[in-house]
Design goal:
Blueprint: H1 3-11, E1 15-17, E2 21-23, H2 27-35, H3 40-45, E3 52-56, H4 86-101, H5 112-118, E4 123-126, H6 138-147, E5 151-156, H7 161-166, E6 173-177, H8 183-190, H9 197-207, E7 214-221, H10 230-240, E8 244-249, H11 268-282, E9 285-290, E10 295-299
Parallel strand pairs: 3-4, 4-5, 5-6, 6-7, 7-8
Antiparallel strand pairs: 1-2, 2-3, 8-10, 9-10
Helix pairs in contact: 4-6, 9-10, 10-11
């Protein structure tokens, strides 16, 4: 990785792991350690926020340039040169998380039992930045995590259907971001690097029902950009037939502030209304909501929301 970029990322709180991976503490790790206030993934699925590593095997490689992304962008490309071994990335990510947690030990607000538990992560959100399916050894990374009984959430933009098709080990939960209802808005909002990115995304959506893992469609919604278009989103969601649909509001942070305004942030009421109208077509269960994250969950079967971590 370019040394200037590496230093810039470290200044933003990232720990760079090897040549192309990174870890950064999630806001909700702090909230959980200080105030026993875990994230929406705990509310929805039972994830322990303080034991979750937010990481990526592709810290500066992506196939899209989304207007709502918090990164300043200027990616190094869509192909990672000289890929690190998965075992080294996993171990390096755990060590990086421990280093990032060090300062919490001396803070009187910290729940020390949770801090000690956090030294042994149980969850890994492969979603920090970049596109994780660009890492050619993602299968090995998922296998290494599974052997340590660490659950994995992979968030993909869906432009690498071939990479998903090749996975022999699937994540505990696979997210596909669907942040545009049609090809025109897709190209304008996500600025993909491949000419056939819309077709690639649709191939991924068509593949989802055949994957033997928990699947999620994530709608990242930007007011006056991609919010609305209920029938078009429904057609995409129907094709994917996911276990869950998360509708989440854009947050005006980081590099996105150079591309959007605070007026592009939808309210929780906007997200709730979108989700309710979408469910008029999907007929899912109401799975839950978190107003502080501006997110609403629809579940195909609400009884299956919580993950059985003992089986991982």
């Amino acid at each position: 990785m370019d040394e200037v970029k590496k230093k810039a990322l470290e200044k933003q709180g990232y720990k760079i792991v090897g040549n192309h991976s990174g870890v950064k503490l999630c806001h909700w790790v702090r909230q959980d350690l200080y105030y026993n206030r875990p994230c929406y993934k705990n509310t929805f699925y039972g994830i322990e926020s303080h034991r979750c590593v937010q990481m990526t095997p592709s810290v500066d490689w992506c196939s899209e340039n989304c207007t709502f992304c918090w990164r300043s962008q200027g990616w190094e490309g869509a192909k990672i040169p000289h890929e690190d071994e998965a075992e080294d990335i996993l171990e390096g990510s755990i060590q990086a998380q421990r280093l990032l947690l060090t300062g919490f030990k001396g803070d009187s607000r910290t729940n020390m039992k949770k801090w000690l538990d956090a030294q042994q992560p149980k969850h890994m959100a492969i979603s920090l930045t970049g596109e994780p399916t660009l890492y050619g050894k993602l299968d090995d990374l998922l296998r290494e995590a599974k052997e340590r009984h660490i659950s994995t959430f992979v968030v993909t933009n869906g432009t690498q259907p071939d990479a998903l098709e090749k996975l022999k080990v699937l994540p505990t939960q696979l997210y596909v971001t669907v942040a545009a209802p049609n090809e025109k808005i897709f190209k304008e909002t996500l600025n993909p690097i491949y000419k056939d990115s819309w077709e690639r995304l649709n191939r991924t959506l068509e593949m989802l029902p055949s994957l033997k893992t928990r699947t999620v469609i994530r709608h990242t919604l930007v007011k006056n950009v991609n919010l609305g278009y209920i029938e078009e989103y429904y057609r995409l969601d129907k094709k994917a037939d996911p276990d869950f649909i998360e509708s989440k509001g854009y947050v005006h942070v980081g590099g996105s502030r150079n591309r959007l305004t605070i007026n592009n942030m939808p309210s929780h009421e906007d997200i709730r209304d979108f989700s309710s109208r979408l469910n008029g077509y999907m007929n899912y269960d109401f799975g839950g909501e978190r107003e502080d994250s501006r997110i609403v969950l629809l579940s195909k079967d609400r009884r299956k929301n919580k993950i059985d971590f003992a089986a991982i």
